[in-house]
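Researcher: Sequence recovery benchmark, item below. Answer with residues only.
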């Protein structure tokens, strides 16, 4: 029995998979924030033309440029690994597999879209990219892509994570990018928020506002987004496409798939190629795992909302907790987002995607068990999926059923040790976002 299932470089996908033509219910179009009418390509000019085309494309397969595949080959194809030690520790009849995206230079799945976005901007002569980042995985991935492709990068990092994860800043600087804590004094919206509350911990929605403002107020500058939008999930499907080939090699197929979900990039990446099978009748359960403190899919409502605090972005039809939602300062910074991918939201609404939420102390406990058995220290975001996997494996044990479990190991936790230290000291606190706070935030939804 091989612990690692490895593909050859020539087996790396040559096309990304676009699920839009296969959705049972089409997603509702994004709206112009001023006119409230469906977006046009002109409304999306903060992106390069190629990205706009991909965002709106109804083509099932999108070719991956050779230059992007060349850079992917630095770490792709990534291994599919059988978590045998974890299985033994749980004494479960379930087979547990994980797709190890932590082997990328940035330590997460994020370079899959960062490289693609940097490439298309470079091809159109863009000199600078601006972006936001939560826990720093996306910011460091875009900094890496900028370094490899020769494009400048400016990153606005959610302040609480900026302070919790100092070595993410070091990585971003090492790859030649600029980074600022958000809210910052570099933008009008940042200065406004700091004036109202100098101790504001920041949020992804706020950091997005700053990055967009920066992009639209500087020449030869575009904006890059690490999650939520269609083109981001498209680029991430290399994860699931590879995983399907790897399962074919061993003659198996997952019964259930788990991935952490903030905006939806790694869940979409691993799940959408399998979701196509599910839509066509395959019996596979796909589960989004989110924090109880930011319960978008489990407590939010399905409606149009802004993707950012300053209401600069298009209105997206998605599950949301309200664009002015200010999440607690949990340590899974990449999951602290008020909304979700419109694609995943529609799949959730249609009953094709399940969702569960956990508190942070229980997910860190799960992450520690994984580190002790499999040897890799998982990022706090990844710990959420691991917690769900452990629960599923224990259910299989109770029921005496064999099942095949797959999850996306979205990133390692080497830059999250302060969070682990807090957990080990017993000082980490749980926070479950109350229903009344959700209702309060939803009162500010746009009127359509």
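Model:
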């Amino acid at each position: 029995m091989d612990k690692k299932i490895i593909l050859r470089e020539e087996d790396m996908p040559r096309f990304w998979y676009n699920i839009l033509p296969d959705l049972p219910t089409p997603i509702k179009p994004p709206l112009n924030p001023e006119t409230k009418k469906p977006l046009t390509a002109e409304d999306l000019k903060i992106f390069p033309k190629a990205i706009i085309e991909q965002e709106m494309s109804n083509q099932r397969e999108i070719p991956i440029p050779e230059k992007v595949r060349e850079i992917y080959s630095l770490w792709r194809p990534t291994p599919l690994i059988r978590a045998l030690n974890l299985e033994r520790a749980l004494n479960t009849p379930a087979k547990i597999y994980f797709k190890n995206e932590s082997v990328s230079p940035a330590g997460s799945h994020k370079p899959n879209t960062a490289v693609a976005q940097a490439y298309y901007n470079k091809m159109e002569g863009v000199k600078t990219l601006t972006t936001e980042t939560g826990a720093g995985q996306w910011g460091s991935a875009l900094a890496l892509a900028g370094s490899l492709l020769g494009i400048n990068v400016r990153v606005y990092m959610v302040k609480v994570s900026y302070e919790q994860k100092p070595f993410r800043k070091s990585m971003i600087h090492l790859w030649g990018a600029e980074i600022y804590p958000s809210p910052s004094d570099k933008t009008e919206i940042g200065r406004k928020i700091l004036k109202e509350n100098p101790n504001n911990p920041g949020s992804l929605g706020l950091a997005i506002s700053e990055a967009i403002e920066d992009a639209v107020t500087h020449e030869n500058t575009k904006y890059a987004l690490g999650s939520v939008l269609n083109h981001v999930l498209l680029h991430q499907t290399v994860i699931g496409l590879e995983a399907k080939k790897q399962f074919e090699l061993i003659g198996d197929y997952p019964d259930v798939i788990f991935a952490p979900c903030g905006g939806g990039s790694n869940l979409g990446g691993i799940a959408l190629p399998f979701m196509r099978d599910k839509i066509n009748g395959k019996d596979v359960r796909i589960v989004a795992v989110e924090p109880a403190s930011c319960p978008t899919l489990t407590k939010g409502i399905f409606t149009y909302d802004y993707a950012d605090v300053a209401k600069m972005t298009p209105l997206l039809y998605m599950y949301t907790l309200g664009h002015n939602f200010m999440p607690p300062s949990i340590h899974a910074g990449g999951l602290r987002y008020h909304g979700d991918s419109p694609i995943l939201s529609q799949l959730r609404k249609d009953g094709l995607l399940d969702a569960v939420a956990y508190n942070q102390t229980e997910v860190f406990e799960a992450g520690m068990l994984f580190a002790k058995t499999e040897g890799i220290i998982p990022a706090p975001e990844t710990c959420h999926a691991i917690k769900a996997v452990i629960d599923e494996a224990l259910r299989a044990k109770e029921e005496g059923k064999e099942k095949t479990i797959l999850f996306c190991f979205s990133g390692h936790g080497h830059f999250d040790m302060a969070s682990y230290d807090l957990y080990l000291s017993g000082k980490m606190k749980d926070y479950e976002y109350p229903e009344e706070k959700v209702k309060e935030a939803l009162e500010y939804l746009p009127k359509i």
